[in-house]
Amino acid sequence: MAQSKAKLTYWDGRGNAEIIRMMLVVCGEDWEEKVFESEAQHLTKRSEMENMISAGVLCFDQVPLLEIDGLRLCQRHAIVKYLARKHNLYGKYGAAHNSTTSN
Prior knowledge:
Layout lengths: L5 E4 L8 H10 L3 E3 L12 H9 L10 E4 L2 E4 L1 H11 L8 H6 L3
Parallel strand pairs: 1-2
Antiparallel strand pairs: 1-3, 3-4
Helix pairs in contact: 1-3
């Protein structure tokens, strides 16, 4: 079964979505920028955001939104963490482990 493209929804600009765009490229994900149930590439109107909120699409009523692997993820750090883990870029141990380990 062919996997569908990941869809990133955000305003037309860098902001909170830029790190997600970079991560999608580094991970080699097939993705596009798209507004939920629209032909638009970026959010441009408040009404588009309100439609997404009323449809219950946004977690915490926030963007960026990444639709990937049947999930709807929001909040940039959570999205980047998901992509890193999916593509084995997260590492085995966190930073706290490295700072408390003696050599």
